[in-house]
Automatic annotation (TrEMBL):
<feature type="domain" description="Acyl-CoA dehydrogenase/oxidase N-terminal">
    <location>
        <begin position="15"/>
        <end position="128"/>
    </location>
</feature>
<keyword id="KW-0274">FAD</keyword>
<dbReference type="GO" id="GO:0003995">
    <property type="term" value="F:acyl-CoA dehydrogenase activity"/>
</dbReference>
<feature type="domain" description="Acyl-CoA dehydrogenase/oxidase C-terminal">
    <location>
        <begin position="246"/>
        <end position="395"/>
    </location>
</feature>
<dbReference type="InterPro" id="IPR050741">
    <property type="entry name" value="Acyl-CoA_dehydrogenase"/>
</dbReference>
<dbReference type="InterPro" id="IPR006091">
    <property type="entry name" value="Acyl-CoA_Oxase/DH_mid-dom"/>
</dbReference>
<keyword id="KW-0285">Flavoprotein</keyword>
<dbReference type="InterPro" id="IPR013786">
    <property type="entry name" value="AcylCoA_DH/ox_N"/>
</dbReference>
<dbReference type="GO" id="GO:0033539">
    <property type="term" value="P:fatty acid beta-oxidation using acyl-CoA dehydrogenase"/>
</dbReference>
<dbReference type="GO" id="GO:0005737">
    <property type="term" value="C:cytoplasm"/>
</dbReference>
<keyword id="KW-0560">Oxidoreductase</keyword>
<dbReference type="InterPro" id="IPR036250">
    <property type="entry name" value="AcylCo_DH-like_C"/>
</dbReference>
<dbReference type="GO" id="GO:0050660">
    <property type="term" value="F:flavin adenine dinucleotide binding"/>
</dbReference>
<comment type="subunit">
    <text>Homodimer.</text>
</comment>
<dbReference type="InterPro" id="IPR009075">
    <property type="entry name" value="AcylCo_DH/oxidase_C"/>
</dbReference>
<feature type="domain" description="Acyl-CoA oxidase/dehydrogenase middle">
    <location>
        <begin position="132"/>
        <end position="219"/>
    </location>
</feature>
<dbReference type="InterPro" id="IPR046373">
    <property type="entry name" value="Acyl-CoA_Oxase/DH_mid-dom_sf"/>
</dbReference>
Amino acid sequence: MWDFETDPDYQRELDWAAAFLREEIEPLQYVVPNILDRANPVREALIPPLQRQVRERGLWATHLGPELGGPGHGQVKLALLNEILGALPTAPVIFGCQAPDSGNAEIIAVYGTEEHKKRYLQPLLDGEIYSCFSMTEPQGGSDPQTFTTNAVLDGDDWVINGEKWFSSNARYAEFLIVMAVTEPDGSPYRRHSMFIVPTDTPGVDIVRGVGHTGFEPLDEGTHAYLRFTDARVPKDNLLGGRGQAFAAAQTRLGGGRIHHAMRTVGMARRALDMMLERAVSRRTQGELLANKQLVQEMIAESWLDLEQFRLLVLRTAWRIDRYQDYQRVRGDISAVKLAMPGVLHRIASRALQVHGSLGVSQEMPFMGMIANAYHMGLADGPTEVHKTTLARSLLRGVEPAPGLWPTQHIPAKRDAALAKYADVLTTVGPR
């Protein structure tokens, strides 16, 4: 159990991870433009040795249970580690827990065949290949009722046609997990099936790369706009049964949402730390920024935002460990998901403001953080959807008032109290 104090043995591992991040991983961003690009010889010389150190430390892929080669630390320990890794976007790759591979591994582990696990899952877990989750479509975003990409069984093959949008890391992926309509007459959430599609399959084309921070050159983003034209995959590449795509997707989305939140804690803390350093370093109008009351207000509000959010994330992680049922904690996961973009946006924006013109430049990371906050408000379901999910979970099971007035109606409560104590009031008299 976690009770606001981490056990000493695991705290030593966290301290090691923090130092490793600071000393070994942070400098990489200045010499390795894209950590997923295996064609870069500098990347290949630097990244695998660091990954080996993480493995030797027992911190590789800690989101996985022992049956998949991970330590099975559980969500609370994973949260404590991820809030360290979240400070740098490159760190999860070094520790074997990057999205979307972590969620895709869970899907294949649950719904894949033994051949799938041998050919795709094990290399993915070993960090030898990368994958892509391909669900969203250009004409309707993530609304399944608008999806038109379809797969038709033709002999021993599924033939896939359609387009996908914002497919994560498609540029560097060895295979895609694609959601396609196979049951057009089914209900909205039973029309789709999920497939493993190797990226070198004839008929799979990257129309263009899609960036998502505002700084990547046009057409060169790691996400992608994809087109499938009579792309054929073996019928055994179906994950789970026909019409089970959304059940399979929930295997990854529940964990994916909380993992994004864990990492966001780290990114927001980094922004706050930079704000604090700037406040005690920069002078204006004859005094330090730290002495300005409005700067102090920004610092105080940022600390409150961060700590409240962090406790909500840890509580949600504890509930996942406690109940081992994502559906039972669906409302809690929606709560951290909808809080996440606002917390990061507010803290990064305040940090940018304290840095002045330097903050808005490409010489500081705040604009990227702010763009990432908007990304977090859309990835794995938009904030608005999670608001309704949380509200419905809170409303579920609440009994309506039995009569005309609310159960906490003061006149009614007063009348009930007078009736309850009538004998005493008659004997002693009112006061």
